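Internal ticket #5521
Category: modeling
Description: The requester needs a full-assembly model to guide mutagenesis choices. All entity lines are attached below as received. Residue total reported by intake: 562.
Assigned to: D.W.
Attached entities:
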Amino acid sequence: MDAKDEGTVRTLLRAIADTAEPPSAVDVAAARRRGSRRVWLRRAALPAFAVVAVAGALTLPRGLLLDHSERTVVPPQPPATSPVVESPWLFNPLVPYASFGWLPPGFSESAANNIVVNQGVAAATDFVSREAAAPAAGRLLYLQVNARGTCAVTVAYAQAGIRDDGSEQVTCTDANFDMTGAAPDVDGQPAFWTGHGSGVAWQYAPGAWAELSASEIGSGRALAPSAATRALLLKVAARVAYGDTTPLTFPFRLSGGLPAGWQLSRVSFTVSGGRMTGSGVTAGPAVDTSALTITAGPGVCDFPAVPGESTSYVARLGVQWRYRTADLPGYAWQGLCATKPVDGLAGVTIGMAMSDPATNKPLPGAAQLGGALGVLARLRFLGPSPAAWTANPVG
Amino acid sequence: MRPSREAEYTDYIRGRLPWLRRVAYLLCQDWQQADDLVQTAITRLYTHWGRARNAASIDAYTRTILIRAFLAERRSAWIRRVSLFPAYPELAGPPAADHEALLDLRAALASLPPRQRATLVLRFYCDLPVDQTAAELGCTPGTVKSQTAKGLSALRRALDPIPAEEA
């Protein structure tokens, strides 16, 4: 078979793939549930005889690590030398609760803005994450500060302390930290190495945990747990600032607000010159908390269309928008992507699910918003001057 | 998983589901099995999303998961035992000008060993070069070349059963 025949096979394969397809039976929500359970089981596969689970907001008593024959749970005491940090049960996503108080030379949050898949930093109701990058060194720092009560601590007792087998962990709503060894205290509070020393998790307030990890830019591989890495992690962790009250400001606003029953689930923001600029919001009803995503920040309109979707272009606000829709059983979605800056704002996209991922029925509230085009019609772009920006992007 | 990553994952799957189903269909030659395979692959992708989102190409990472899940299933007896979904009703596709050729190719593809079929799908549907095909299949470029040659030869026999000199 020569090149001509290869072309024939190529054409026929495409023709086969393009034949009428039945409704999808793929259940994304089920994949998330099963995947989540699999992650949990993988990390929590503990010998039954050796497990004590301290659930909910209970804290890990330091004494357990120092004296493994002692099983009395002792509430941690705030160190006399450090101010007592309070953590709320939930964070306000529009007011990032925590920040890097210090970064090593070469690192900055603004450098992370264009490196990670999303923006450099994000905030949700139960955690705040921030990222700082050192492009020259190819290093990335990821900080996740979890709200009080969102982490559970699981401790496997063993003769020789932490066993470094993934069985000891801090399990938070949005992350799991495998404890791989005891670390020096962070700001006087219990701390553990994670990822064999490429990260450190610490209890920054009673019932509240944070983790800082270091990885390579690009590959995402954890840094080797060298003494230098560990020292850097401890120094950055000890200087994390909590209780920030500076609100984000957004250069866009969804007029008319969200449908009843919808709420913000997370926001993303960029940091440049000390200013925190909101670059994305995600919201939805309880059945799909990420049903609507609006972004206006780093990124380009390069998401290619895929078979099964229709793609067209619409003109709005003097800009051509790539408009993608899928109205297939089990997959109803609309997306808009600006091909040029809108009112000086680059990277404007709107993505909107139109069906309930669990039932495939129309998503409550989606019709009220009018789909992606309806959302665009209600978006107000506030111009280049930060003085005109808003702290409430969905009000 | 962090909500931001959960949203990334969901958005990605929403965008890529039709593509994943079609690649899976070419591999499985059956929509029901294709959806089973995609379900398996995206569940696995969820557990590795942190790594996938940092990969040079999320599509390549996902396709590798899909291909390897396909090969693993074919190696095991799973494919003969389990279906995650009820049977689909028969659907009539639009008539194609070369309908007979399509039917012949489908039959020929179905007769190929799974690895040969996966190789042809990656090379000629996904348009991957030999090196990348090898990486996704977890084999050497030489194996890809030999599997491609064998697969194409089998297709040639199926599509053109009468040798040229006898025609």
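Resolution: model delivered.
Comment from assignee: Chain B touches chain A through 66 residues (CB under 8 Å).
Ticket closed.
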